[in-house]
């Protein structure tokens, strides 16, 4: 139970830490429950989107939904995407990439990447019917966190524990932990998406595999920023795939 609590403390900004004190050792396995935390962040985002659509145009509702998740997570994953793009865009060697990724300053690659990320997310959510946008959110968040979580099972950590920005080095998943992550990631897709849309799940899995290969080639291992960036990139392609299936299906 404390491992689940650790995941919600780590991946959200809600005061779950008030429930119980969680030893630092539990945080090394929070990625197992990353898709489960997606149930909460997706539910909040979809709830805001659905409720706001009764009061304002879909464009306003989509913007408020995006803002709700940013506030809920403290822009944790967006920060990872920004650092990832700055490092991989501006660095030419593993050492230089890792140095840039750890730099608290945001460069042009990170800024442009975040702008494009939010534009794409807003464009897809505001272009679909409200029910479809809610479905995209409810399915995309947990499943793409599962897809991105495969990074820690395939690659070693690229830094030492004392060099980690968060002070946490994730442990690879055990077999039953992998099953748990898969179930919590896939279940929302099976529950909320019509069967015709299930094929969209292949795209973020492929995207995650390609990112893992690229990350391995560039720096030989992963960092927390790589995981956050992988999630948002996988989610972006998932949004695009479901949108394409809706408009051209």
Short structural description:
The protein has 249 residues and is mainly α. It has helices at 2-11, 34-52, 58-73, 76-90, 94-102, 108-127, 130-149, 151-154, 175-192, 202-219, 224-248. It is 70% helix and 0% strand.
Would you mind describing this structure in some detail?
- It is a single chain.
- The protein is an all-alpha fold.
- The chain has 11 helices and no strands.
- The longest helix is centred in the last third of the chain and has 25 residues, at about 225-249.
- The chain is globular and about 50 Å long.
Write the topology of this structure.
Elements: H1 2-11, H2 34-52, H3 58-73, H4 76-90, H5 94-102, H6 108-127, H7 130-149, H8 151-154, H9 175-192, H10 202-219, H11 224-248
Strand content: under 5%
Radius of gyration: 17 Å
The helix count comes to 11
- Write the element-wise H/E pattern from the N-terminal end onward: HHHHHHHHHHH
What is the CA-CA span between the terminal residues? 42 Å
| Proportion in helices | 55-70%
Q: Would you report the number of β strands?
A: 0
Indicate the structural class. mainly alpha
Largest sheet: none
Low-confidence stretches: none
Give the rounded overall mean pLDDT: 95
What general outline do the C-alpha atoms trace?
globular
Structure keywords:
249 residues, mainly alpha, 11 helices, 70% helix
């Amino acid at each position: 139970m404390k491992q689940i609590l650790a995941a919600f403390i780590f991946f959200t900004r809600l005061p779950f830490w008030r429930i119980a004190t969680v030893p630092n050792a539990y945080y090394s396995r929070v990625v197992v429950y990353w898709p489960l935390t997606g149930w909460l962040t997706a539910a909040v985002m979809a709830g805001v989107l659905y409720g706001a659509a009764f009061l304002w145009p879909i464009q306003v509702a989509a913007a408020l939904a995006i803002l709700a998740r940013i506030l809920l997570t403290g822009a944790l994953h967006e920060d990872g995407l920004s650092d990832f793009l700055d490092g991989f865009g501006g660095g030419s060697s593993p050492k230089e990439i890792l140095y840039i990724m750890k730099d608290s300053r945001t460069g042009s690659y990170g800024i442009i990447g975040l702008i494009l990320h939010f534009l794409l997310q807003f464009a897809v959510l505001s272009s679909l019917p409200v029910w479809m946008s809610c479905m995209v959110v409810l399915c995309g968040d947990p499943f793409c966190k599962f897809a991105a979580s495969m990074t820690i099972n395939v690659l070693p950590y690229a830094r030492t524990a004392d060099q980690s920005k968060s002070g946490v080095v994730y442990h690879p998943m055990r077999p039953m932990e992998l099953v748990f992550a898969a179930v919590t990631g896939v279940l929302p897709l099976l529950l909320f998406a019509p069967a015709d849309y299930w094929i969209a799940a292949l795209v973020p899995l492929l995207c995650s595999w390609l990112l893992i290969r690229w990350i391995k080639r560039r720096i030989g291992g992963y960092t927390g920023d790589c995981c956050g960036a992988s999630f948002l990139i996988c989610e972006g392609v998932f949004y695009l795939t479901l949108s394409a299936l809706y408009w051209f299906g």
